[in-house]
């Protein structure tokens, strides 16, 4: 192998460290929990309105968890693994 072949060899290291990926997984889990809490609340009978769709879990808690999960994802991208 000459010097030119070594320079053209692709770099095979990951973009982020293990710490960054673990933080990303935590963020994805928080987002998934938020969407799971947001689901449901409908009525079995389409002619009957169900007030459960406007409870605290679906209006406040679930969207807050999704936003916190997105913030965790942004933090995971910008986190410096060397610190």
Automatic annotation (TrEMBL):
Keywords: Membrane, Transmembrane, Transmembrane helix. The chain crosses the membrane at residues 21-41, 61-79. InterPro entries: DUF3098. It holds the Pfam family DUF3098. This is DUF3098 domain-containing protein. It comes from Aureibaculum marinum.
């Amino acid at each position: 192998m000459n010097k030119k072949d070594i320079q053209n060899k692709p770099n095979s290291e990951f973009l982020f460290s293990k710490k960054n990926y673990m933080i990303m997984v935590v963020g994805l889990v928080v987002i998934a929990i938020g969407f799971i809490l947001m689901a449901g609340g409908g009525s079995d009978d389409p002619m009957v309105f169900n007030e459960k769709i406007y409870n605290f879990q679906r209006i406040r808690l679930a969207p807050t968890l999704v936003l916190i999960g997105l913030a965790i994802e942004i933090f995971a991208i910008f986190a410096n693994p060397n610190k």
